[in-house]
Write a structure and sequence with these properties.
The chain contains seven helices and no strands. It has about 120 residues and is mainly alpha-helical.
């Protein structure tokens, strides 16, 4: 993730702190308000800063982090239900929907590609 150090008022430090917070709390319910409170910024300003600096909304970043972490857990052989809970999803159908949006396959399909060498994701 690349972001500019040109933001006034330590914006780059706030972004780094926000991203660190997301990484540490990935398995919990994370809200824009909680992240903004953690980095001592107004939630609207943090949202604007995040989009301008990264090109994506904070919620998309959170989901991407969760999916990346879930891929690691799936590779370790954890049950899908346990994986989704560990990365902060409460609903399996929503987890599958988000996972598919980022990987073009379901968690079960992803796991099968790991178990069968030669299969590739779309």
């Amino acid at each position: 993730m690349v972001y500019s150090a040109e933001w006034p008022g330590g914006g780059h430090q706030a972004l780094a702190a926000a991203m660190g917070y997301v990484g540490r709390h990935c398995g919990e319910r994370i809200t824009l308000e909680a992240v903004a409170r953690h980095v001592h910024l107004n939630k609207t300003y943090l949202s604007h800063l995040f989009v301008c600096a990264t090109g994506q909304r904070l919620s998309a970043y959170i989901n991407r982090m969760r999916i990346e972490r879930s891929m690691t857990y799936l590779a370790q052989g954890l049950p899908i239900f346990e994986v989704m809970e560990r990365v902060g999803f409460e609903d399996q159908s929503y987890f599958t929907k988000v996972f598919r949006a980022y990987t073009q396959c379901t968690p079960a399909q992803y796991r099968r590609t790991l178990q069968k060498p030669g299969l590739e994701l779309h």
